[in-house]
Amino acid sequence: MSTAETAIGTSKAMVLNMGPQHPSTHGVLRVLLELDGENVLTAVPDIGYLHTGIEKSCEHKTYSQAITLTDRIDYLNPLGNNLVYCLAVEKLLGLEVPKRAQYIRVMMVELQRISSHLVWLGTHALDMGAMSVMLYCFREREEILKIFERFSGQRMMTSYIRIGGLAVQTPAGWREQVKRFLDMMPPRIDEYEALLTENPIWQGRLKGVGYLPPETLIAMSTTGPGLRAAGVPFDNRKDFPYSGYEEFQFDVPTRTESDCYARYLVRVAEMRESVKIARQAMDKISDDGPIKAEAPGIIPPEREKMKTEMEALIYHFKIFTEGFSPPPGEAYAVVESPRGELGCFVASDGSPKPLRVHFRGPSFVNLQALPNMVRGQLIADTVACIGTIDIVLGEVDR
Amino acid sequence: MTQLANANAGVVVEQLRAWNAQAIAQVVEYRGETTIVVPRELLRATALECRDNPSLQFNLLSDATCVDRFPVEPRFELNYSLVSIPRRDRLRLRTRVSAQHPVVDSLMPVWPGANWLEREVFDLFGIHFEGHTDLRRLLLPDGFEGFPLRRDFPTEGQR
Question: Phi/psi class of residue B141: alpha, beta or left (left: φ > 0; alpha: ψ in -120 to 50)?
Fold first, then answer.
């Protein structure tokens, strides 16, 4: 317990335990707050309540089996997790993915970005006391989940992106469904903005709250919308393009205020950009074509081939009993997840199981900046700061 | 994926060699990624040079992680992924740490963002970071015994 100077004399600081069961911590985050009245003196985040040892489990699965685990890291961005893991393993293998599969990947992760931002917007508005926005956001998110279900058979843990390509061919009628969604989305974003952007309560809760200068954010390794809201246009899709992003036209929205309100504006603008990218990707995807790389022994053969070709049957058996072995070496793949730089480090020792799989979760790293962000602010602002960092505890704890 | 060799890699290696030839024990080029193996004693100084040299400008520490190559000695390989936002470049620094003396200089004075990344490695691999201001377990409870991401720690846990 420390003492603090206030206007009416010296007061005792109080330690308050916020979480792990607290609705605005979005899961099981515990923050130890040292308070002087309503003002936060220090904040110490305590994490690990959702630690499930995914990285350790990956070491005891074959490269293909580990994909299902990656879905569960950042459960609002399963396709992005699949993608980064597959990019890392493909890098290790030196595997070229067909263009068509790359475009479908881009379209899917952009839809995923919209859905993740929708969940963020809805829950954050709920934290700030705006109930109805959540209902609108989840209504639109449902449409995205229906698209995922059509493509992969799963709404959330899709495991749709596989090493060397995709799990299954595009379903019938997908183009109309995606198009309908993309046409619907921009006016819906206008609706959210009509509810929030000029709303005096919303502005009052967010403007000027949680300011950090860009130098501090970079020093604290913050990436994603938090960094872009401070005026640093760092986006892996532009700076280190992957999966064909260099062929797409889009802007990287930035703001300079670096407060919670700026982070909100950046995320809303990103949703509009994602609609643009998904539309371009949809136009680039041909009606017919391969969705898997040609790599016997690594990519499971087509069902038809297995019935007619001896080699295909042998490869199929070997892939599912033994797995495949990338040459020894390390690879680090990076994608821009809705929360920032999502990295995947894979080390191979030449055996069918990875020597090490490590995920650099953006919410894990971004959460480090919380103590700096809330120092000297009110308890209620802590909720706003946690919200606009946009943490997913599954990814923080892994 | 046909990866072109990183065009900037030569410049980075030249700059670092001009600064201190001893800092570069080995340069690994693999799949378009450059890894510089640094002696353990020179890690922090090299990191500082990477950050402050105007033609390197690696201002963001993206990731820090460890690979356990048990039973090879030195068994631990620490990998630091650096990003230069102004130069749009990436680099990996690597240093090797033995099981007898698993201690390495913390990079917190260089990039404060190393805080949790190093705490995670301490928590799961049992490597000590000299100069870290808050080296406690991060993901696991305080009383936990052992370091689960070491290769000799059983996947089903210790009974």
Answer: beta
Q: CA-to-CA distance for A117 and A340, rounded, in angstroms?
A: 12
A65 contacts chain B (CB < 8 A):
no
Q: How far is B19 from chain A (nearest CA, A)?
A: 23
pLDDT digits (tens, 9 = 90+) for A222-269: 999 999 999 999 999 988 999 889 999 999 999 998 999 999 999 999
DSSP state of B36: E
Q: Which domain holds residue B42?
A: 9-130
On whether residue B28 sits in a domain, the answer given is yes
As a whole number of angstroms, the distance between CA B125 and CA A49 comes to 19
In a domain, residue B143? The reply is no
Instruction: Specify the CATH number for the domain of residue B94.
Output: 3.30.460.80
Q: Does the beta-carbon distance from B139 to A47 stay under 8 Å?
A: yes
Tell me how many domains chain B contains. Answer: 1
Q: How far apart are CA B78 and CA B96, in angstroms?
A: 6
pTM of the model: 0.90
CATH no., domain A54-362 = 1.10.645.10
Domain ranges of chain A: 54-362
Give the closest of A94, A222, A332 to B81, CB-based.
A332
Measure A155 CA to nearest chain B CA, in Å: 29
Domain-located, residue B25: yes
- Using CB atoms, pick whichever of B3, B65, B148 lies closest to residue A358: B65
The ipTM estimated for the assembled molecules is 0.89
